[in-house]
Design goal:
heterodimer; A: alpha/beta; Rossmann fold; 6-stranded mixed beta sheet; about 40% helix
């Protein structure tokens, strides 16, 4: 469980995050949604320590990440996995070497065990037979899956995903979403997903945090979104006319029942 | 204002070097990278070093023979000057200037691309000291192989000089041999190697710094790569002046 308490972040004179307090729960896919520029990537970077918060607390199961020394932060990061928007695979290594990299670096396993574990992770993301390929030679969806496999290789407690679906077609997005959700449940991880893909919001939104201009505007689960009366949230989610009409229909039919 | 900017950059460079020179987390991974970098940066440069040294050695010999030598000078002048130029300046300083272009742009663009595609962030998130993991093997690899490149360069320069006398018949090979052996001081060879080690550090660490601190996209990677080559060339020339003064 990750608790965020009164988190502020400003760049020079611009306040990007203002008083964010929330909880990300274990075994659930926690979603951070919001418009481009609303501060969701900044929030994510603060959580993993790529940026320093101006003030506030970030508690990983009670341990305050902001107050930690450099060394403690490095140790803490070994409990985290992260999937970047661009997958960020090491392009000088093959797929298998990429997944093996965290194991090579931190585990005390033998070579054979490491290969075995890496292949297990690749199987878990349904990616077999691509071991010897380089990241440049596989499709975007496959790259994302390799990134997931690499992130889960060390059995992290906390998994962060920065827009895992950007640049993927809707069907592949669904596959990635389901994969993330099933992995989260299987290993009881705290998964935090930064997204603006509405399919994910409706599909795997077990705990949704809506950020609007640096403030936490709304928090809830996907089933509450349809009926929500928060104007900014509905404007954001149901942006197109098609979706607006759909929502009206759903609400009306709901009332008739 | 510009001095403040330079000092800030220099401070950031020192901080990065501080992070780079820490004990590698996994010796096995460090050695793997070390061997890879030695092959990529050092061994792959042998070809160009030999090629350039051969022709420069030959050209210097021809120039000396045709333009400097006159009847009232000893017959060993051409060979002697060729040897001194190769050993004292060309094999260390000029060679490193050329390598700054080849190796420097390679390092800066590789690390810069890793930065803009978030691969360095990915390393950081895993808890890996990215500076040490990426930069230390490059610096160590370059420092290890640079003395060999210098020795190869000097030797090839002399081969080039002999080629002008055997193939080009510019002068009798005996004259050249006498010149090459005249008043030889072994210290000059060591001086060349010591200087090249400093240059090796410059041409691996400075481009690594420029690459590591890239922000933005491909345009910035290109700019970092150019800056890296320019900056390391200038630093090589500056430090050459001081090192030559100190060592001779």
């Amino acid at each position: 469980m990750i608790e965020v308490k009164h988190l502020y972040k400003s760049f020079e004179d611009k306040d990007v995050l203002k008083d964010i307090s929330t909880t990300f729960e274990d075994g659930k896919t926690n979603l951070i949604i919001g418009q481009s520029g609303s501060g969701k990537t900044v929030l994510m970077k603060n959580l993993v320590g790529l940026l320093e918060p101006t003030k506030g607390q970030i508690l990983y199961d009670g341990r305050d990440f902001v107050q930690m020394s450099k060394y403690e932060k490095v140790m803490m990061r070994r409990e985290m996995g992260m999937i970047f928007q661009s997958a960020a695979l090491f392009d000088s290594m093959t797929v298998l070497e990429n997944v093996m990299f965290p194991l090579d670096m931190f585990s005390s396993m033998t070579f054979r065990e490491r290969v075995h574990r890496a292949q297990e992770c690749l199987e878990r993301v349904n990616l077999e037979g691509a071991d010897e390929k380089y990241p440049g030679e596989i499709s975007g969806g496959m790259q994302k899956r390799v990134a997931i496999a690499r992130a889960i290789a060390l059995n992290p407690k906390y998994l962060f995903c920065d827009e895992p679906n950007s640049g993927l077609d809707p069907k592949t997005s669904l596959v990635i979403d389901e994969l993330l959700q099933s992995i989260t449940r299987e290993f009881n991880m705290t998964t935090i997903i930064n997204t603006h893909d509405m399919n994910s919001v409706m599909g795997i939104g077990e705990n949704i945090i809506f950020i609007y201009e640096g403030n936490k505007e709304w928090q809830g689960v996907s089933s509450q979104i349809m009926g929500s009366d928060n104007q900014r949230l509905t404007d954001f989610i149901f942006a197109s006319d098609l979706l607006k009409n759909m929502r009206q229909l759903v609400i009306q039919s709901g009332l008739q029942k | 204002m510009i001095i403040k900017k330079w000092l800030t950059t220099f401070g950031r460079y020192l901080l990065l070097m501080g992070r780079t020179f820490s004990r590698p987390e996994r010796m096995r991974m460090f050695l793997k990278q070390y061997v890879k970098e030695m092959a990529q940066l050092g061994v792959n440069s042998i070809g160009i070093v030999l090629l350039i040294s051969f022709f420069i050695g030959a050209v210097i010999c021809i120039q000396m023979k045709l333009n400097i030598e006159s009847p009232w000078m000893p017959r060993w002048v051409a060979g002697y000057t060729t040897r001194e130029i190769m050993l004292l300046e060309f094999s260390s300083s000029i060679m490193c200037l050329i390598l700054a272009g080849k190796v420097g742009s390679n390092i800066a663009s590789e690390i810069g691309t890793m930065r803009v595609t978030q691969q360095i962030d990915a390393l950081e998130i895993m808890g890996v000291n990215s500076a040490s993991y990426l930069i230390l093997p490059k610096i160590m690899g370059m420092i290890t192989l640079m003395p060999f490149l210098v020795i190869f360069s000097s030797a090839m320069g002399i081969v080039g000089a002999y080629a002008t006398s055997y193939i080009g018949h510019i002068m009798p090979p005996d004259d050249l041999t006498v010149g090459l052996q005249h008043d030889f001081r072994a210290w000059f060879m060591w001086m060349s190697i010591i200087k090249s080690i400093f240059f090796a550090f410059i041409i691996s660490s400075v481009p690594a710094f420029f690459g590591y601190t890239v922000e933005g996209g491909s345009v910035n990677v290109g700019k970092a790569s150019t800056d890296a080559v320019v900056c390391s060339s200038v630093l090589i020339l500056f430090s050459d002046v001081f090192l030559t003064q100190l060592l001779s």
